[in-house]
Specification:
24% strand; Structural Genomics Hypothetical 15.5 Kd Protein In mrcA-pckA Intergenic Region, Chain A; Alpha-Beta Plaits; alpha+beta; single chain
């Protein structure tokens, strides 16, 4: 990969800025100043220093966000703030997007990345990647209603949902629900199909990812290498 292309993709410098820095001796490859940014390097093997800062190559970015209420799962919106607005300004250099979506008033775990291919595989119905949500409902669920929801319920548009898993709390009006799909407002519509109403919804897992309990609402962190490998494995 060309030096200037690498620096540009990493969001460190434009090609023009890289060329200017190189002329001033500000670009080092394995300790040797490089005047020509068109030179190719191996970002996995070569040690690259730009203006005194070592460049650690990262092809893609993966961010765990604890989504607060009122933010939409989109890259831009003409009316409401988006989940990308919660990230620092420097992340605007990358083509980040939310992997999947949460409703505007649904809280919790959101994966933000620029790896489109992995995102597509994680969301593919063929891979049955599980997502678990903590919920509260207006009324307690009966055994029969729980069974209907777990077996698959017909929504208002005629779609029959895939089987779900429900773990009830003692009050039977709260608990956890796990899905392998993500239709529009699906959980809310599922409960409406059994004449109930969701009053609180928070995603707590997405495949192998668990919402980091140290993250407050609106806070984020980059995924660890172990978490990234687990996501890749889940998307196989």
């Amino acid at each position: 990969m060309r030096i200037d292309k690498l620096l540009s993709e990493m969001g460190i410098a434009t090609r023009k800025e890289a060329a200017s820095a190189a002329k001033r001796g500000g670009v080092l490859i394995n300790g040797v100043p490089q005047k020509d940014c068109a030179k190719h390097v191996d970002p996995e093997k070569d040690r690259i220093v730009y203006l005194g800062r070592e460049v650690v190559y990262q092809k893609y970015r993966y961010i765990m966000l604890n989504k607060p209420e009122g933010y939409v799962s989109a890259t831009e919106d003409g009316k409401d703030p988006t989940v990308l607005d919660l990230l620092p300004e420097e992340y605007g250099k990358f083509n980040l997007f939310p992997c999947g979506r949460l409703d505007k008033n649904t809280l919790g775990l959101m994966l933000i990345t620029d790896n489109g291919e992995l995102s597509h595989r994680l969301l593919s119905p063929k891979r049955h990647v599980k997502k678990t949500y903590a919920y509260r409902s207006k009324f307690p669920l009966t055994d029969k209603e729980k069974e209907v929801l777990e077996d698959g319920v017909i929504l208002d548009d005629g779609y029959e949902t895939k089987p779900a898993e429900i773990e009830l709390d003692n009050d039977r009006a709260s608990g956890y629900i796990t899905l392998t799909e993500g239709k529009y407002h699906q959980i809310k519509r599922m409960f409406e199909a059994v004449h109930n109403k969701i009053t609180y919804l928070e995603r707590v897992t997405f495949g192998p990812l668990y919402l980091d309990s140290s993250l407050g609402r609106g806070e984020w962190r980059e995924l660890t290498e172990k978490e990234i490998l687990a996501l890749e494995d889940a998307a196989k």
